[in-house]
Design goal:
The complex is a heterotrimer. By secondary structure, chain A is mainly alpha-helical. Chain A is extended. Chain B has one domain: Helix Hairpins. In chain B, α1 runs antiparallel to α2. The chains are: A mainly alpha, B mainly alpha, C mainly alpha. Chains in contact: A-B, A-C, B-C.
Chain lengths: 172, 102, 645
């Protein structure tokens, strides 16, 4: 048992490492393609973390939606825009410093808040992690949310098309 | 891995990284990437609470699902805005967008 | 309202004094373009006023004590200010004088002002004056008196500046009003002191309280001196006397009514109205005596050097007012009031006669009038001589009796210098008035026929309605001048009824009966008075009337004195300098600076400040999205740290 647990722990921490590394690659390098790839790595790491958190379905969804759709869309957008290496003025140091400070402050705030709070689990905990349960809930209890989000997606698509279309008319 | 706090710290860390990226990058698409990172950190938070605290595991998963859906919609819109802005400014450097200065 | 209609006395008083105001309103609003209707409205109102004042006079002739009507006007706590009428012998006498002279002047104006474009306006203001003066005369409280005092000053301003297109006329009106106002500042301060110290401004209360020593001596002196400032302003005493000669810019009937008989007498009237109050303070009386003397002498000297017909009578008015103030301040209640009455008569007469001359020859210069044959106009010439004889104090005219009464009062004072000053004044008065008479009556180089293309119309006018409108009042006044002297004793007892029946007791040593003077007998005084007048007439004849006289007068040999008198003892220059330095240089500059720098500057400063703050805040609007996000997250993080951790 110990070795299994130890193996699980090691796998966990490796996943976390991938996630953090991906995040770092997504934020710091200047080359935009590095950033996209880093994002993809980070999102995959998070999918792995979802597995550790017990939901196979969500992990698959993460990979499908985020890595498969969103990252590809971002790559498309990158290809359609002028490469940024043609203009690369010096990064302002105060700006970077302030950004790091803000990030650090926020991190400290959140972690100390998390540490201080006494997290009380609910008394009666369910144990049904199956996909049928999710589907059933989506169509009965959370029906409204389901419909609303489909509406939101519709509006988003229309909006995206319209915005892209307008600017095409007004640009040279 | 069996500790809620671990996940909370991880998600806080990811969120802060994303925040740094938003505040510091000049490339619009870079900012969008960082925003996606922040959204994912929040999603991780939801899943962690779902695993350790919630009475019914379905709720948390549905929540995470919806956040993903919304993130997708937002990314689509964001990209089309960036496209429109690019056509206008001929650049995706956010420091060029200062028409509201003063 | 019911009691108003039931009581004929109250009705007469109210109607007589209010109707002129109504007439003014009607004329100004409705009938300005119709001169005939306007003058008729005004004449009707003044005739009504005359009838009611005569009615009141006759009805209340032998009344036992004064009659008072009053209603509470406004009150605050213990303080009650009333509005009402106080009808005692003095006010009835003054009411009659004002009504008679105002009626005669308004009739005269029909002739004098005929054809003038501002005819309606003139009559409106005449009505205003008549209404205000009569209300002032029967006022029951000092506040009511003050209000109508100011209204009278306002009417004077309007009438002096009647020919407002002429620069000098409008300036003269302004000068009169401002000088009056300056005096009234003191008056009002005195009223406030009285109100604070005594709590009541009613006239009978004031007089009786002064008599029974209910007020502190200090209070009486201070308020009396302050109230006397009003007398100085209104009755043209020294130093505020230069407005009266300038007021001759107004039409002559105005000069006759306001600036000789009634308005300027308002100050003297007010003095005699609260005579017991004034006489309770010997210091105030002495000051008033001194000022009256100085006024009388100064203005007599000024009258000796001027060639303008109306100016002579103006200076003479100032001088006679000084004499009246002297009489009152010396304790002679009756002699002051009697001289006021007779002076109203003969001074109005003199002015109206001068008006006829001016209307005929279109000049004010006495030399020109004489040369052009002024003496040929018989009625004005004769009446003017009668008036001048009265002014000089020649028997048996009214002026003789009143001047003797005044000199008698002055003789009663322990210090004989006042009497001496009065005699000099009498001498000078006779001198300058007959100087004028001789200039017109016996012109130097004979009479030239004035070549007037309108001579024919003038001759017809001599018998036309214009002429008679002017001649009849003049003749009536001349008749009054002849007989008024003989009513001295009935008048005295009429006015003394004032003293006997009212509650106050006049301090004994202050009233000097005619002739019962200390240390001087009646006969010596008579001889001195008459000889002063005759000496003046003789000197005038010697210098101006005699054939072959030099016509320059004894002053001609003292050019510096001539200049001194001619420039009104440099009073005008002094006022001009004081005005320039203190008012324009001082107050005006301070206030202008305050307005420009502090008030305007303050508002500008607020604008600049707002702008600067705005500019400061605009730095925050960098337009950079990431800065906004930065601030937002820093704030959120700090908030979380502060509140939750």
């Amino acid at each position: 048992m110990d070795s299994l647990t130890a193996l699980a722990q090691a796998a966990f921490w490796i996943t976390v490492g991938f996630t953090v590394a991906g995040a770092a690659i997504a934020v710091f390098p200047r080359n935009i393609l590095y950033n996209v790839l880093g994002l993809a790595l980070a999102l995959s790491g998070i999918a792995g973390l979802y597995l550790f958190l017990g939901s196979f379905f969500i992990a698959m969804m993460q990979l499908l939606i985020y890595v498969g759709a969103i990252c590809i869309a971002i790559v498309f957008a990158i290809m359609l825009s002028r490469p940024l290496h043609l203009e690369a003025p010096q990064r302002a140091v105060p700006k970077i410093a302030m950004a790091f400070t803000a990030g650090a402050v926020f991190f400290v705030a959140l972690t100390s808040l998390a540490g201080r709070t006494n997290w009380v689990p609910a008394k009666a905990r369910g144990s049904d992690w199956s996909i049928e349960a999710i589907g059933h809930a989506l169509l009965t209890r959370y029906e409204l949310v389901f419909e609303v989000i489909s509406l939101v997606l519709l509006v988003a698509i229309i909006g995206a098309i319209v915005t892209a279309g307008f600017s095409r008319r007004s640009s040279s | 891995m069996n500790n809620l706090n671990t996940y909370l710290i991880i998600s806080a860390f990811l969120f802060s990284l994303g925040l740094i990226g938003v505040l510091q990058r000049r490339n619009l698409i870079g900012m969008l990437i960082s925003i996606e990172l922040m959204l994912n950190a929040a999603n991780l938070n939801f899943m962690a609470f779902n695993r350790f605290l919630s009475p019914d595991p379905v709720v948390g998963q549905i929540m995470a699902l919806f956040v993903m859906g919304l993130a997708a919609a937002e990314a689509a819109i964001g990209l089309s805005i960036i496209l429109a802005l690019f056509r206008k400014m001929h650049s995706i450097n956010i420091e060029r967008a200062q028409k509201l200065k003063g | 309202m019911g009691e108003l209609l039931k009581d004929p006395i109250l009705l007469a008083a109210a109607v007589g004094t209010t109707l002129p105001f109504l007439a003014m309103a009607v004329i100004l609003i409705f009938t300005r373009h119709n001169p005939g209707v306007s003058s008729r409205i005004s004449l009707v109102s003044i005739a009504t006023a005359l009838i009611s004042s005569l009615f009141l006079f006759i009805r209340l002739y032998g009344a036992h004590g004064p009659l008072q009507y009053q209603t509470v006007w406004f009150s605050s706590g213990n303080l009650h200010i009333t509005f009402g009428y106080y009808l005692d012998p003095l006010s009835l006498l003054m009411l009659a004088i004002v009504a008679i002279v105002a009626t005669l002047v308004q009739i005269y104006s029909l002739g004098y002002m005929a054809g003038d474009p501002g005819f309606s306006r003139y009559y409106a203001f005449q009505s205003l004056f008549a209404g205000a003066m009569m209300n002032m005369v029967i006022a029951g409280t000092m506040l009511q008196l003050f209000i109508f005092w100011e209204l009278v000053g306002l009417a004077s301003y309007f009438l002096i500046g009647f020919y407002y297109e002429k620069w000098s006329a409008s300036q003269a009106g302004k000068k009169a009003f401002v000088m009056n106002r300056v005096g009234d500042v003191g008056f009002f301060l005195g009223l406030i002191v009285l109100l604070l110290g005594f709590g009541n401004l009613g006239i009978p209360e004031l007089n009786s309280a002064a008599g029974t020593h209910a007020l502190s001596q200090h209070l009486i002196t201070v308020s009396a001196l302050l109230i006397f400032c009003g007398v100085i302003g209104k009755s043209a005493q020294f130093p505020l006397l230069t407005w009266l000669p300038d007021a001759m810019e107004g039409p002559t009937p105005v000069s006759a009514l306001l600036h000789s008989a009634t308005m300027v007498a308002a100050g003297v009237y007010m003095f005699s109205r609260i005579f017991p109050f004034f006489s309770a303070s010997p210091e105030a009386m002495t000051v008033a005596l001194a000022i009256g003397t100085v006024t009388m002498l100064l203005s007599s000297t000024m009258a000796m050097v001027t060639f303008d017909l109306k100016q002579v009578w103006a200076y003479s008015t100032v001088s006679q007012l000084g004499l009246m103030v002297m009489a009152l301040a010396a304790g002679g209640y009756f002699s002051g009031v009697f001289h006021l009455t007779t002076h109203a008569g003969f001074k109005a007469l003199l002015f109206l006669c001068s008006g006829i001359f001016i209307h005929e020859y279109h000049t004010n210069d006495m030399r020109v009038i004489g040369k052009q044959g002024g003496r040929k106009l018989l009625i004005p010439m004769i009446c003017m001589i009668i008036g001048a004889l009265a002014l000089a104090g020649v028997y048996p005219l009214s002026g003789f009796y009143s001047k003797e009464a005044v000199l008698g009062t002055l003789a009663g004072l322990p210090n004989k210098t006042w009497l001496f000053a009065g005699l000099i004044g009498a001498f000078l008065t006779a001198y300058y008035s007959f100087r004028l008479i001789f200039f017109i009556l016996l012109p130097k180089d004979g009479v030239e026929e004035h070549v007037d293309p309108q001579a024919h119309e003038h001759k017809e006018e001599h018998h036309g309605s214009v002429f008679w409108a002017m001649a009849v009042p003049v003749m009536i006044l001349a008749g009054l001048t002849l007989v008024l002297g003989h009513v001295e004793h009935p008048l005295e007892s009429f006015l003394a009824g004032n003293a006997e029946h009212s509650a106050h007791v006049l301090p004994v040593g202050h009233i000097v009966e005619n002739g019962h003077s200390a240390g001087m007998s009646h006969e010596i005084l008579l001889i001195l008075g008459v000889s002063a007048g005759l000496l003046g007439i003789f000197l005038a004849w010697f210098e101006f009337g005699r054939k072959g006289s030099s016509r320059t007068g004894f002053l001609g040999s003292f050019p510096s004195l001539w200049r001194l008198f001619d420039s009104r003892w440099f009073l005008d220059a002094f006022f001009r300098k004081a005005l320039d330095r203190f008012v324009y240089g001082g107050f005006t500059t301070v206030f202008t600076k305050n307005d420009r720098r502090i008030i305007d500057g303050g508002i500008d400063g607020i604008c600049y400040f707002t702008e600067a703050v705005g500019r400061l805040f605009s730095f925050l609007q960098s337009g950079m999205l990431q800065y906004n996000l930065l601030i937002m997250t820093l704030a959120a993080g700090a908030a979380i740290l502060y509140f939750l951790v």
